[in-house]
Amino acid sequence: MRKNVNAAFYVPYVLWLGLFVIAPMLLIFYQSFFDINHHFTLANYATYFQSGTYLTMTFNSVWYAFVITVVTLLISYPAALILHYMKHKQLWLLLIILPTWVNLLLKAYAFIGIFGKDGGINNFLGFFGAAPMQLLFTDAAFIFVAAYIEIPFMILPIFNGIEELDENLVNASQDLGASSWQTFTKVTLPLTMSGVKSGVQAVFIPSLSLFMLTRLIGGNRVITLGTAIEEHFLTTMNWGMGSTIGVVLIVAMVIIMFLTGERAKHRVKGGRRHV
Amino acid sequence: MSKSKFKWGHLYLILVFVVLYLPIAYLVGFSFSDGERMSHFKGFTFRHYGELFNDPRMIQIVLDTLLVALLAALFATIIGTFGAMAINNTRKAGVRNSILSLNNILMVSPDVIIGASFLIFFTALNVPLGFLSVVLSHIAFSIPIVVLMVLPKLKELPGSMLDAAQDLGATNSQVLRDVVLPFITPGILSGFFMAFTYSLDDFAVTFFVTGNGFQTLSVEIYARARQGISLEINALSGVMFLFALLLVIGYYFIQQAQTSRKHKKGGR
């Protein structure tokens, strides 16, 4: 294509690339080599890899992200498959997307009410004579709410993957005598794997970095990488250590993107992506 | 698929929808409860909405949030549109792909990383934390989505149209104004819209770069939610749900307009 715009118009975009994409990423690497008194040091990394606390925290964070992803996937795959066979599926899809447009904080706040000692679930269970339970600030509540928030972001890419599946292959498999289960495991699932990978990528990375939900729903019992970064930056003001954990999170992100395919093919369209 | 299985499927899907919508219904429902807690509905009232509309602090925050979103969407759209043109006009595929990869970094990075790195960046440059740093951050994280919305439209633009315009004596700026911009307008509108909603919804990045004096809605809700239940927030969620509904309908119509345009083109 030819030049039809004066190069001067491109300057802001190039400036943005330099100032807001490249510079901050370099700065977070740079900052990770400084201690709380602004002296150059490798101590942050030494601390991170030697102290049991940080390694346990990282392991827990990965574990929780894994559980959240698996729960979300188990709920979303059947839902996406059923959606595919529905009439008016675009309308249903819109209804799946709609909750992502409700402010994330408000959804978390709703669950404070629902899971409270005096909240909806305990009242409901009360009808059956159950005593009020502590639901808020438990691991189960944290995982449930995180999965609740992520479900649309898992359903959409899987749905798109299933839409691309050639229906003839499913029919052929059934005509050749495969059972429904065999058709599913040998044909449908392998051929929709790219959608699943995109979904896993869209859910796992944000789950590693959740920090607001760990406070409001998890009651600080769960410390994710995101929580640790936030605490170091905004509470203890140890930016060096926070940046070190940030670098770890970036490395984790790159590994996940490598494992699930560098570029998610099925981008979430219309859904909002801020967790 | 057998009939009975299909019904089970419907039941499952209904269950998923119930799980998705029940918390929102619960939240909005209690905004009409004449009590102070989010349990035991106590009779219908608009009292909490009254409190909300008479809360000058909250109204100021809503206005600030809208202003930030509008400014961020406007600047992100302008910069992103020219960015998309720059990428589209880059001839070397290698260079183009590396710019695109850089473009997408902020789309895939966790918000915590964006927030923390921007905080270091603003502090290093002595940018005061507050309105300015929040607007700059929102512009920054909204640019990539605008680029991704505009780029496909530029790719669809037929080269013959540009040749025709130039052969007929149009100057570069005329080609841009009268040929290119009208053609890619749907992409620009989608980009503006997505940028606007990204900004409205953001919590994590704003939380990092806002300092003490300036609040957006998400940050304020977080602060209030930490203190416990206040049905004024439920009233706010009622208003915001209505607003989100309008935005979704708006987005749906933008999408519809785009596809019907495509259809017309294909039909000819």
What does this molecule look like?
The complex is a heterodimer of chains A (275) and B (268). Chain A has 275 residues and is mostly helical. Chain A has a single domain (52-259), classed as Orthogonal Bundle (MetI-like fold). Helices cover 70% and strands 0% of the residues of chain A. Chain A has helices at residues 11-31, 43-50, 52-84, 89-97, 104-115, 120-127, 139-164, 167-175, 180-191, 193-209, 212-216, 225-235, 239-259. In chain A, α1 (11-31) packs across α13, α7 runs antiparallel to α10 (193-209) and α8 (167-175) packs antiparallel against α9. The two termini of chain A are 38 Å apart. Chain B has helices at 3-29, 47-53, 56-89, 93-108, 111-124, 131-156, 159-167, 172-201, 204-209, 217-227, 231-267. By secondary structure, chain B is mainly α. The model of chain B has no long low-confidence stretch (mean pLDDT 88). Chain B has 11 helices and no strands. Chain B folds into 2 domains: 1-45, no CATH class; 58-267, MetI-like (MetI-like fold, Orthogonal Bundle), CATH 1.10.3720. The interface between A and B is large, with 88 and 93 residues.
Share in helix of chain A: 55-70%
Q: Strand tally of chain A, please?
A: 0
β-strand percent of chain B reads under 5%
- The SSE order of chain B reads HHHHHHHHHHH
CATH topology of the largest domain in chain B: MetI-like fold
Strand content of chain A: under 5%
Biggest interface, chains and residue tallies: A-B, 88 and 93 residues
Question: Helix segment count of chain B?
Answer: 11
Q: Biggest sheet of chain B, in brief? A: none
Q: Mind telling me the C-alpha Rg of chain B? A: 23 Å
Q: What's the architecture of the largest domain in chain B, going by CATH?
A: Orthogonal Bundle
- Calculate Rg of chain A over CA atoms: 23 Å
Give the key terms:
heterodimer, A: 275 residues, mainly alpha, MetI-like fold, 13 helices, 0% strand, B: 268 residues, 11 helices
What is the secondary structure topology, with strand pairs?
The complex is a heterodimer of chains A (275) and B (268).
Chain A: H1 11-31, H2 43-50, H3 52-84, H4 89-97, H5 104-115, H6 120-127, H7 139-164, H8 167-175, H9 180-191, H10 193-209, H11 212-216, H12 225-235, H13 239-259
Helix pairs in contact in A: 1-13, 2-3, 3-7, 3-10, 7-10, 8-9, 10-13, 12-13
Chain B: H1 3-29, H2 47-53, H3 56-89, H4 93-108, H5 111-124, H6 131-156, H7 159-167, H8 172-201, H9 204-209, H10 217-227, H11 231-267
